[in-house]
UniProtKB/TrEMBL annotation:
InterPro entries: TM_pro_TauE-like (IPR002781), TSUP (IPR052017). It is found in: Cell membrane. This is Probable membrane transporter protein. GO terms for cellular component: plasma membrane. Belongs to the 4-toluene sulfonate uptake permease (TSUP) (TC 2.A.102) family. The chain crosses the membrane at residues 49-70, 82-99, 105-122, 210-231, 238-256. Keywords: Cell membrane, Membrane, Transmembrane, Transmembrane helix, Transport. The keyword Transcription regulation does not apply. It is a multi-pass membrane protein.
Amino acid sequence: MNTMTLWHLNGWEFAALAFAALLVGFSKTAVSGANTVSLAIFAAVLPARASTGVLLPILIAGDVLAVLTYRRHAHWPTLWRLFPAVAAGVVVGTVFLMWADDGIVRTSIGAILLLMAGVTVWRRRQADAEEEPDGVTTRAGRAKARSYGVLGGFTTMVANAGGPVMSMYLLSAGFRKLGFLGTSAFFFLIVNTSKLPFSAGLGLIDADSLLLDAALVLFVVPGAFLGRWAVNRINQRLFEQLVIAATVVGGVQLLVR
């Protein structure tokens, strides 16, 4: 099937998805969590359930580029501490998707987007307060890793929206920019890759969706290069404000659709 007619797309809809794919690449190498805007665009243009399956390979392509860029800065003890809880969250999310129809998934994605916007605002206020973060080896740090891991696994499975959750956790654990980017790059590459059999088993990934992915993944690469160029130049505070605003608009649009 021609990728331009897949999902009955017109030119403007494909252009919106292409922009969302470019933003995925940008977010993976510059501002983690910004791809919540991509999530809103995909869920608005495509059927809500199908959008999660189409977006997943695009996210993985962005993860690969991020790992190639920041692979030397990952903190593996943190990753190993998170993975068991994330796996539990992914299983819960898979069970949810087994019975949820498109309307429920669309509403859930909208609610998750608004939740993630609130999480991001709270995260920024915590950063502004400059409180001492919990160490990842303390009891409080381990409890935090488990709670954020389960929530991150569920949100990433249901809506590919684990970015803000993990961003908040890594920042609260005291990670600086390069360590943050390197650790999150490996985290999402491993988690998103592990989601492939679940998504395929639920029928969210098939030959038609992969055809659309093949057309859209070309836009991830320039987005990643743009993010790598901008990471040390971008006004982070202004960009996060724009991302939060766009995420809220996308979430509300899905809830009232």
